[in-house]
Design a protein that fits this description.
The protein is of the alpha/beta class. The radius of gyration is 23 Å and the shape is globular.
Length: about 525
């Protein structure tokens, strides 16, 4: 192991100094230039009194500053706490109280409101420009529309001093990430250098190919482990590059694909649906694509088929592979690959990880093909939850497993089939119903763009199923009565009577979280 996250990046930079490392807003940085910018940022943090063990909360979109801050904190032996930039002020206050950061780096446009809410906290507030170091025109426009109060110090005005990078140790905590927790309760996950570095090295063989040809389109927020692990630390631990988007814009993403400036993609299903919905996406430029991964939400089989058929049509070797993970394992635990894949599964576990299925009630291991809670052991797991005195792991034999809160099964070849979050499972007349099976049946119809099934309390049956649908763009005039009739026939042929929705309705679009997943809480509120 190489110690700190920065050390692992630095070892790569020594071997790939002149190779492309980052592309952002039309500007490129090779490894040598990126290293200088990271050390410059680390020197600014040192000037502000940041040192080993201090926490730096980073509330930025995917921009050059967020990337350099991530590695700069590591170079000082500090802890990066990546938080979504548009986190509501009250929720952010809870995170700040729990993590005790020495500094909070915010967007100019959000800073004024958040500072007033956090005024009683002994925190140094810093403002970052998301276009700093990149597009001069956008930087000028951004500066013209945003004014700061005097309590906030712009990072650009801080003097940078020389530093001696902290080597770090595998067991040092390097990163905090927020999670809904395996039971839905918000928690802060503590991740160590060793876990992140091991994942960074394991991740690349899953991609394959010539490293300098891999340019990963990274639009998933870096505060999400999938975006951070596979979009940043994996490519920059191996000599590949990342293409940062501060917000996913379909037109801009397609332009990057046209030019060959992005040759690999990571994303949630909504991202791929958006690309496939545009005529401009299709063409001979797709031959430049190397690979694509999807995770973070339930993945319809129809989406995989549409994407892969498109790649085949345009003579691209790229295929879309489904994976699975959770923040407690840096969001990457399983993935299908070109060499090993099984249709309908989320793939085999990464090397060094061990998975079993346990009874949700007794936590006793179950044999292959048994449905239950997924449990994971291995060397890329979290240290624990910040401030949580309880043990988040269970011991089975000589292994310590984290319970995922997810429901699924393993086949006899070791492929994992993810079915549902346990908290989304519905009991109807005592029978266990997985809403995902209903959603997959609905998404069989091309006219249906998105589907979301959920349980509603019912005095007689315990619960009943409701199903929300959104139609694909261009199909809004579809005969809904005829579509519902066909859907009803399909549901009855595939599912038990207890899983048949008592209500099916259409929305213009389904509400999403910040990373593009369907928002469970907002969906549940529709029936309140």
């Amino acid at each position: 192991m190489t110690g700190s996250l920065y050390n692992q990046f630095l070892n790569t930079a020594k071997n790939y100094g002149r190779s492309l490392a980052v592309r952002y807003e039309g500007k490129d940085w090779n490894y040598n230039k990126l290293n200088r910018e990271i050390l410059k940022m680390a020197g600014k943090l040192k000037t502000l009194g940041i040192g080993k063990g201090d926490v730096v909360a980073i509330l930025l979109p995917n921009c050059f500053a967020s990337l350099t801050l991530f590695y700069a904190t590591s170079a000082l032996g500090a802890i990066a706490y990546l938080i979504h930039p548009f986190t509501p002020a009250e929720e952010l206050h809870q995170y700040i109280e729990k993590s005790h950061p020495k500094a909070v780096v915010l967007l100019d446009e959000e800073a004024n409101g958040l500072v007033s809410v956090l005024a009683n906290e002994k925190v140094l507030f810093l403002a970052a420009d998301p276009f700093d170091g990149a597009n001069p025109f956008k930087k000028l426009c951004y500066r013209g529309f945003h004014r700061l109060n005097k309590e906030i110090k712009p990072l650009s005005k801080v003097h940078s001093q020389a530093i001696v990078p902290n080597n770090g140790a595998d067991e040092d905590v390097a990163l905090y990430l927020n999670t809904g927790g395996t039971n839905g309760e918000p928690k802060i996950v503590e991740l160590q250098n060793g876990s992140l570095n091991r994942l960074g090295l394991k991740g690349y063989p899953l991609i394959g190919g010539e490293v300098t040809a891999i340019k990963i389109l990274t639009a998933i927020p870096l505060c999400h482990g999938f975006g951070l692990a596979m979009g940043i630390h994996t490519p920059l631990s191996n000599g590949a590059s990342t293409v940062l988007m501060n917000k996913f814009r379909t037109k801009q993403a397609i332009s990057l694909l046209h030019k060959g400036e992005a040759t690999a993609i990571i994303g949630v299903p909504a991202l791929y649906n958006a690309l496939l919905s545009k005529d401009a996406f299709y063409g001979p430029w797709l031959k430049k694509q190397i690979i694509a991964f999807v995770g973070g939400d339930s993945v319809p089989e129809s989406l995989l088929a549409r994407y892969n058929e498109t790649m085949e049509k345009y003579h691209s070797e790229a295929r879309l592979y489904q994976g699975y993970g959770l923040t407690e394992a840096v969001n990457v635990a399983n993935v299908n690959t070109a060499k090993e894949h099984c249709f309908g599964s989320v793939g085999k576990p990464l090397p060094g990880l061990l998975e079993i299925i346990v009874d949700p009630s007794t936590k006793k291991p179950l044999p292959p093909l048994s449905h239950g809670e997924i449990a994971i052991a291995g060397d890329t797991l979290m240290k624990g939850y910040l401030g949580d005195k309880g043990d988040p792991f269970i011991s089975i034999g000589d292994k310590r497993y984290v319970l995922t809160g997810d429901y699924g099964y393993l086949n006899e070849e070791g492929y994992l089939f993810f079915e549902q979050r346990l908290r989304r499972i519905v009991k109807v007349k005592g029978e266990t119903i997985c809403p995902s099976s209903i959603e997959k049946a609905a998404l069989y119809f091309y006219e249906i763009y998105e589907a979301y099934a959920y349980g509603v309390k019912d005095e007689r049956d315990g619960a009943t199923i409701h199903l929300a649908l959104a139609l694909r763009h261009g199909y809004e005039d579809t005969d809904k009565a005829l579509l519902l009739e066909s859907l009803s026939t399909r549901l009855k042929s595939l599912l038990p009577s207890s899983a048949i929705p008592s209500r099916i309705y259409f929305l213009k679009e389904l509400p999403k979280t910040a990373i593009g997943k369907i928002d469970d809480a907002k969906m549940a509120s529709l029936d309140q």
